[in-house]
Design a protein that fits this description.
Layout: H1 5-31, H2 40-47, E1 52-53, H3 54-61, H4 65-77, E2 81-86, E3 89-97, H5 99-120, H6 125-140
């Protein structure tokens, strides 16, 4: 008996999240052997920006401020991120990748993209675009 589509989707997403956690762990090790894998989403977000206010990181990552502070401290000890004064607000701090952090993230990202390109090379490009559009739509409806 085939499960209903919502149950099937939920099952596939759970499996995808599990595989994503494994990939985050592997990518974290590639960035630095002592990097806590829970820091990877923060580094990924920082890699798409120059410098990000801590308040934005808290919001986008869905973390408590104290948890984010521990992650930033951990990554800073490995020279992957740094805190900077916020030119718009003297009380606030921005978080940014260091040159080392950006270089490591760029390497990991390039490897990940090459793997995705290889895995999807036999797919019709319209299917890839449709998948991206549907995932974006699903994500927008879950916020």
């Amino acid at each position: 008996m085939t499960a209903d589509p919502i149950t099937e989707l939920e099952s596939e997403l759970v499996d995808m999240w599990r595989r994503g956690r494994i990939q985050s762990r592997e990518r974290s090790r590639a960035i630095h052997p002592r990097l806590d894998p829970t820091c990877y989403p923060m580094l990924a977000l920082l890699s798409r920006n120059d410098a990000v206010p801590m308040s934005q990181l808290v919001s986008e990552l869905g973390l408590e401020k104290s948890t984010l502070t521990r992650q930033i401290d951990s990554a800073a000890r490995l020279d992957l991120v740094e805190r900077r004064p916020d030119p718009q607000d003297a009380r606030a701090r921005l978080v940014a990748l260091t040159d080392l952090g950006r270089a490591r993230m760029d390497e990991v990202h390039a490897t990940a993209l090459a793997n995705w390109r290889d895995r999807l090379s036999r797919w019709d490009q319209d299917d890839v675009r449709t998948l991206a559009r549907l995932l974006r739509r699903l994500g927008e409806n879950t916020k």
